[in-house]
Amino acid sequence: YKLLGGYKESIPCYASTYHGDHQPDGLSSPEAYADFAEQCLDMGYPAFKIHGWGQAPIAQEIACVHAVGQRVGGKMDLMLDPACEYITFGDALKVGWACDEERFFWYEDPYRDGGKSQFAHRKLRQLIKTPLLMTEHVRSLEPHIDFVIADATDYVRGDVGYDGITGVIKLAHACEALGLDIEFHGPGPAQRQCMAAIRNTNYYEMGLIHPKADASHAPHLFLDYADDLNAIDAKGHVPIPQGPGLGAAINWDWVKKNQTGYVEYGG
């Protein structure tokens, strides 16, 4: 990250939840989300993102926004990511109004256009106050910036898994030139390295996490490295790995033990 810019030694995180469930001790109700948000606040997280149920009645999604907002609003930044699951523009609009009332930090990929309609999200921006975070489902530099120029998003999503470190750093600089922030998708050493090298980004996505379940990624892929609920420090930050390359050594013993096949290239 020092070769990329070397801007930060640690980065603040948001707790990014699993989608809602129906388990009695899980994320089964608006109150359960509020309880988990309060738990994350007490742990030091400065921000919390809801992934709701998606297939639930829209009134339940709205109730979740209000429950979390009324419990921890003003104490931590709040986000909502329906993951393109709301059925209609009207549903997205109703939930957006709830986000406005609770002063959410962003509203992400609300409904079933697949996160790609510039026109629809420009219309949504005209009708709500909460900033939109779009472009998770857009690939390469030019379509991302097309989304921005079309007034279809406020924050810009970048993904090292699709565009690589070079691609997202290009995108980060393009966003900076337009006065906007880039927010990186998902956790990982590459995301940390990129975020540490730029100014215009806010939070590292710690997820997906749950009050009772393990995080949603392979926990043993890297040595002396973690992306889970308890990985933050008292300020809600994670450090930037300091080793060569991505900074965290790959656990090749674990990889070989769990591999299901491989392809060998070259001689």
Helix percentage: 25-40%
Number of domains: 1
Report the radius of gyration as a whole number of Å. 19 Å
Broad structural category: alpha/beta
Which second-level CATH architecture applies?
Alpha-Beta Barrel
Structural description of this entry:
There is one protein chain. The chain has 267 residues and is an alpha/beta fold. The chain has a single domain (10-258), classed as Enolase-like C-terminal domain (TIM Barrel), CATH 3.20.20. Helix content is 35%, strand content 14%. Strands 1, 2, 3, 4, 5, 6, 7, 8 and 9 form a nine-stranded mixed beta sheet that branches. The longest helix is centred in the middle third of the chain and has 18 residues, at 160-177. The radius of gyration is 19 Å and the shape is globular. The protein starts with 9 loop residues before the first strand and ends in a 9-residue tail after the last helix. The mean pLDDT is 95.
Main attributes?
267 residues, 8 helices, alpha/beta, TIM Barrel, globular
What topology emerges from the helices and strands here?
Blueprint: E1 10-17, H1 30-43, E2 47-50, H2 58-72, E3 77-80, H3 89-101, E4 106-108, H4 118-127, E5 132-134, H5 141-149, E6 155-158, H6 160-177, E7 182-184, H7 189-196, E8 204-209, E9 237-239, H8 252-258
Helix pairs in contact: 1-2, 2-3
